[in-house]
Amino acid sequence: MRDGNAHYAGIIASSYPNDDDAVLFLFARYVEKYGWDWVSQLVQQNASFNRGTNVARDLVASGEKAIGVGCSVRGNSLAFVTNGTEYLAWGQRMGILSKAKHPAAAKLFMNWIISEEAQATLVANSPRTDINTNKPWDIPEGNMAAFPKFMEDRATAEEWRQKFSLYIGEVQGKPSPGWLGLHPGKQ
Fold it and tell me: Any transmembrane segments, and where (predicted)?
């Protein structure tokens, strides 16, 4: 893909980097390594940009596309291919708001999400050392602190987002499945 090879035309699916923070972080790493020409070449390949990291994965799983960028393979019989040097990882953060409407339900959910059952079935690389044998925290290339640090600098993250919009265009399409909006439950 880095050489603009025409045999990649029309077979690449990706999430919009200007719509998803994790994909924004991934694409920023690509630009730091390969330059903005890489993004131009990706766009010239007529890559399919979509809302939600599930869409690129689903397009590859269905055979509509051959390459998915910035998506997970969990739950599909897809091969995960890397260049052998990069591994992006971070732990998801969760919390309960001090004025939560249903704090007991929130605590129940939190207890379930960190349970052995949920971590073993829903999380590819759990931070729980008693469950995960992959030990993602010990992979030096993972640079576990990079994503949170990237997201803390909101001005720079938004600058990246706007630059990607110039190359790729504004985000289009329906919100990701499961998107509940600013006020979930209100009509």
Answer: none
Same domain, 14 and 68: yes
pLDDT tens string, the chain, 187 residues long: the values are 555 567 889 999 999 999 988 899 989 999 999 999 999 999 999 999 998 888 888 899 899 999 888 776 665 566 666 665 566 767 777 899 999 999 999 999 999 998 988 888 877 677 777 876 666 666 666 677 788 899 999 999 999 999 999 999 999 987 766 655 666 666 5
Q: How many domains does the chain have?
A: 2
Domain that holds residue 30: 1-89+139-173
pTM of the model: 0.76
